[in-house]
């Protein structure tokens, strides 16, 4: 039984898990959907109610019936490296590759269906609330008047992107930025704005969840610091215990979302309370592991190489509860 | 008129990084010029920033 890792060749964070799998002798294959068609080859035949076939790349082969798990890490767009790429070829290749993989009986970290939903920031806030986290007041709006009202009510608010910086321009950063009610909100009409009450914080918290295992890390913030991802504060990440109440909420969240892996961001306020900011279903973990020594890549490798556990539904369907 | 959020973009100083590792198709991971896996050099990985939370954000929006 083989672990399939969907990611780019440049992804050295994935290397950390590949090295763990090699160390335990776990069969694995690393494939970038961007290399299909081309370096990678897919052949799947529908017979007897299912697909029989194989995927191969760089001399490595996996049979569709021999998949132990699929890790969707940092895959390229299907067919992006093809000789004649096009949106149509990408769509066709996505249909073939993911359609066949979805049909396989395997475990996912994370299932693309659940990942798509988990990326939606408004949905994250709702699930976070239901899971028992403290969530800052937030508004998504295309109304300049409502944006202005929100800023006047909460005074110090931050603006941030729901989906990240515009793709295609690596020289552009879009950090979470503190603004006040004096800002000119007229441009809110040109695109949805995400405004959130600013939480003065004394630390950033990164909590990585791998299956049932939790790894929390803390980095002291500078006074007035808004976005911990940008700027060097001189502080490093330190591993810390997970408060019991937070741990319960994390497990509840990933259960509701159907996630096997998630990286949570919290702001620790001046009273020590943790405020939910977001949950990245494919969040990076290498920087935390390298600075804290927490064995996150080992935990990922163990989850991927574990035998099917019918009691673990995180790879399949999220738990349905009222309100979600 | 541009979307409000884009009023807060900043130019990002891209580090002049020359990747000192390359992908080994047989071992399915990146290796240093001497053949050691790139992950065996944590200082290098931290220096090139390829494992930080903003890495990959240009093509993937999961930080």
- The main sheet of chain A orders its strands as 15-14-13-16-17
Task: Report the biggest beta sheet of chain B as strand number plus sense, adding barrel if it closes.
Answer: 2 strands, antiparallel
Structural class of chain B: alpha+beta
Largest interface: pair, residues per side:
A-B, 64 and 42 residues
CATH H-level superfamily of the largest domain in chain A: ATP-grasp fold, B domain
Task: Give me the oligomer status.
Answer: heterodimer
Features of the shown structure:
heterodimer, A: 324 residues, alpha+beta, D-amino Acid Aminotransferase, Chain A, domain 1, Dna Ligase, domain 1, 5-stranded antiparallel sheet, 4-stranded parallel sheet, 28% strand, globular, B: 63 residues, two-stranded antiparallel ribbon, 3 strands, 13% strand
Question: Could you characterize what this model shows?
Answer:
The complex is a heterodimer of chains A (324) and B (63). Chain A is built from eight helices and 17 strands. By secondary structure, chain A is an alpha+beta fold. Chain A has three domains: 104 residues, no CATH class; 118 residues, ATP-grasp fold, B domain (D-amino Acid Aminotransferase, Chain A, domain 1, 2-Layer Sandwich); 61 residues, Dna Ligase, domain 1 (2-Layer Sandwich). In chain A, α1 crosses α8. The radius of gyration of chain A is 21 Å and the shape is globular. About 2% of the residues of chain A have low confidence. The C terminus of chain B is likely disordered. Chain B is built from one helix and three strands. Chain B has a domain of 31 residues. With 63 residues, chain B is α+β, with helices and mostly antiparallel strands. Chain B has a two-stranded antiparallel sheet with strand order 2-3. At the A-B interface, α1, β2, β10 and α7 of A face β1 and α1 of B. β10 of chain A pairs antiparallel with β1 of chain B, so a sheet runs across the interface.
